Amino acid sequence: MIQVTIPGKGTMTLKVLVLDYNGTLALDGEMFESVKENLLQLSSFVEIHILTADTYGTVARQCKGLPVEVKVLESLDHTTEKADYLLQFNNQEIIAIGNGANDQLMLERAHLGIAVIGLEGASIQTLLSADLVVNRIEDAFGLLIETQRLKATLRR
Question: Environment class of residue 83 by beta-carbon count within 10 Å: exposed (0-12), middle (13-18) or buried (19+)?
Answer without folding.
Answer: buried
